[in-house]
Amino acid sequence: MKKILALVLALVMCIGCASAFADKVGVSMPTKDLQRWVQDGENMEKELKDAGFEVELQYASNDVPTQLNQVETMIDNGCNVIVISAIEGSSLGTALAKAKEKGVKVIAYDRLLMDSDAVDYYATFDNYMVGTVQGTYVKEQLDLDNAAGPFYMEITAGDPGDNNARYFYQGAIDVLKPYMDAGKIVVRSGQIEFDQVATPTWKTDVAQKRADDILTGYYANGEQLDVWLCSNDSTALGVTNALDNYTGEGWPIITGQDCDIANTKNMIAGKQAMSVFKDTRTLAAQVVKMIKQILAGEEVEVNDTETYNNNVITVPSYLCAPVFADANNYKELLVDSGYYTEDQLK
User: Fold this and answer.
1) Which CATH class is domain 2-119+279-319?
2) What is the model's pTM?
3) pLDDT tens digits for range 214-243
């Protein structure tokens, strides 16, 4: 009888362990250096814990080997689903292969994981639309369909290791290129192609150094500068820092993305014109819904099965819609919604 009871107890314990493993989710974020990733991680962790999951959240300090090790550890620790926002999209191949071998489902979060067939789903905002929103804002602010021009613009794009950066860039350029071809928009520096305007790891100081060089080389005598097209807020902050020393008249239209606190303050102050708002609470909620569907064996909700090819497979994706914030609507979007408090923006 004692042996039977011991076997029953062992079986119950094994079932309990399996249940705990099934309810454990790993979340791998690239860095704490950018405000948006801290918010993404915190929102994701809260949503998952509120849904009853055990959560292993890690930040990789923008170091690829660290992220690789963290993801492999999550697999070893029994996570059945891992959500990954990669530092460099092609860098996690060995960890992804291990995840597939162990039956761990992988959701790429806001950055597509490249060159692997072990990516099950992709959750993000419509990245091409982010660029479209930026380009359309510039088009409308300058009234490009009616104004004679020429208007002078410079471009700062994102990290070439981040697959999203090219979508952001291309979405904006596709809106503005007809006006560039017609001579209504002129890029004095001649730096237009993505590889010329990219910013490794999205770093503010890298964007600032390049902006300083452009201003010194092409705008040293106060030449007209109407627009600086920036793909996100960390690069926009670098450009704004450089422009603080600019001797030209007025302040150019500066675009951005993420509505970071420093950039929102700059919008209020009239330095940055706009920032694309991607409410990470919306994205986190959608990912939690996908995780629940995965673990329940249900069909996972996606709304795009054609766009995001990672060089091996086309990854089923769910795309959330972005909007823009500026000095006119930031209070409604960011404060009234509870995303920030008024004190945070003072």
Assistant:
1) alpha beta
2) 0.80
3) 999 999 988 999 999 999 999 999 999 999
